[in-house]
C-alpha cells in the first residue's frame, strides 16, 4: 500500500479484556516500530522488528503486552487483560531507505479501556 | 535519561507571526533530525528533516536551523497560519535504526490565533 495502515482506528474495550491492534506496513519496509502515545504526551517506544530477526521488546511496559510480525509484513500488537492505564493511541511506523533513511507513521489506533 | 529535549511545551502565536520551537540532543551519533506535525486524531506526519551536513533547510514556510556544535536544532514557521495549529515533535535518529532508532521530544502544542 501507499502508506502504513492501522486497524481499527478506534477501539473501546472493557477492563480485563484482550485486544489486538493491527499494522500493515509499506511493502518492502523491513523495519517496523510500535509506539504508544498517552493523552498529551510524547511517543513511547514499545517494540521493534527488523526483517526476520527476533524483535527488540525492551520498551514493552509489562508482560501483558506482546507483538508479532508475520512473514516480515503485517504486525499485531496484543494487550491482554487491559487496564485503564493502557488507554492511549498506539502508533505503528516503518523505516525506509538506506543512507537517506526516514520513517512513516500510520494514523494510529485510539484505545479506550473502560 | 531524556535524549531529546523540546521547548516550549506550548506556544501561542498570532497569525502572520513566526513560530519557533527548539530541541536539544545529547547523543552525537544522531544523524537524522526530523520534525513531525500531528493533528488531533492523526498519526505524526513528517514535516521536514535535516541531516548534520547542513546548517539550514527550508521548505516553503518551514525552516530547520541546525547547530551541530551546540547539539541544537529548531523549527521556524514563517507567516504562521491557523491551519498550522497542531502538535509538533522533534526527533533524532541514529544510523542503523534499532530499537532506539528514533527518539522523540515531548512535543509542542502550537496555537495560531487568527
Could you please describe the fold and organization of this structure?
- The complex is a heterodimer of chains A (114) and B (114).
- With 114 residues, chain A is mainly beta.
- Chain A has strands at 5-7, 10-13, 19-24, 31-37, 43-50, 65-69, 75-79, 88-96, 102-105, 109-113.
- In chain A, 33% of the residues are buried.
- Chain B has no helices and 11 strands.
- In chain B, strands 2, 4, 5, 9, 10 and 11 form a 6-stranded mixed beta sheet that branches. A 5-stranded antiparallel beta sheet of chain B has the order 1-3-8-7-6, with no helix packed on it.
- Classes of the chains: A mainly beta (114), B mainly beta (114).
- At the A-B interface, strand 5, strand 8 and strand 9 of A face strand 5 of B.
Secondary-structure blueprint of this entry?
The complex is a heterodimer of chains A (114) and B (114).
Chain A: E1 5-7, E2 10-13, E3 19-24, E4 31-37, E5 43-50, E6 65-69, E7 75-79, E8 88-96, E9 102-105, E10 109-113
Parallel strand pairs in A: 2-10
Antiparallel strand pairs in A: 1-3, 3-7, 4-5, 4-8, 6-7, 8-9, 8-10
Chain B: E1 4-7, E2 10-14, E3 19-25, E4 33-38, E5 45-50, E6 56-59, E7 62-67, E8 72-77, E9 86-93, E10 102-104, E11 108-113
Parallel strand pairs in B: 2-11
Antiparallel strand pairs in B: 1-3, 3-8, 4-5, 4-9, 6-7, 7-8, 9-10, 9-11
Average pLDDT reading of chain A: 90
Counted beta strands of chain A = 10
Note the beta-strand portion of chain A.
Answer: over 45%
What's the alpha carbon Rg of chain A, rounded to whole Å? 14 Å
Give the overall form of chain A. globular
**What is the number of E strands of chain B?**
11
Low-pLDDT segments, ≥5 res of chain B: none
Cα-atom Rg of chain B, whole angstroms? 14 Å
Summary?
The complex is a heterodimer of chains A (114) and B (114). Chain A has 114 residues and is an all-beta fold.
Amino acid at each position: 500500500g501507499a502508506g502504513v495502515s492501522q486497524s481499527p482506528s478506534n477501539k473501546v474495550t472493557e477492563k480485563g479484556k484482550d485486544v489486538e491492534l493491527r499494522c500493515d506496513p509499506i511493502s518492502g519496509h523491513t523495519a517496523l516500530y510500535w509506539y504508544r502515545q498517552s493523552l498529551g504526551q510524547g511517543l513511547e517506544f514499545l517494540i521493534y522488528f527488523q526483517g526476520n530477526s527476533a524483535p527488540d521488546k525492551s520498551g514493552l511496559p509489562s508482560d501483558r503486552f506482546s507483538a508479532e510480525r508475520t512473514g516480515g509484513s503485517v504486525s499485531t500488537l496484543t494487550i491482554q487483560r487491559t487496564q485503564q492505564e493502557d488507554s492511549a493511541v498506539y502508533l505503528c511506523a516503518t523505516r525506509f531507505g538506506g543512507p537517506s533513511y526516514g520513517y512513516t507513521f500510520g494514523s494510529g489506533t485510539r484505545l479506550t479501556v473502560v | 535519561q531524556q535524549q531529546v529535549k523540546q521547548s516550549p511545551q506550548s506556544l501561542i502565536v498570532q497569525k502572520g507571526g513566526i513560530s519557533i520551537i527548539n530541541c536539544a540532543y545529547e547523543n552525537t551519533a544522531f544523524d537524522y533530525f526530523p520534525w513531525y506535525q500531528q493533528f488531533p486524531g492523526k498519526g505524526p506526519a513528517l514535516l521536514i528533516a535535516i541531516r548534520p551536513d547542513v546548517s539550514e533547510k527550508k521548505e516553503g514556510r518551514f525552516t530547520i536551523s541546525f547547530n551541530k556544535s551546540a547539539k541544537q536544532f529548531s523549527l521556524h514557521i514563517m507567516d504562521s497560519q491557523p491551519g498550522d495549529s497542531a502538535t509538533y515533535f522533534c526527533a533524532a535518529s541514529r544510523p542503523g535504526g534499532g530499537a532506539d532508532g528514533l527518539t522523540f521530544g515531548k512535543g509542542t502544542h502550537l496555537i495560531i490565533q487568527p
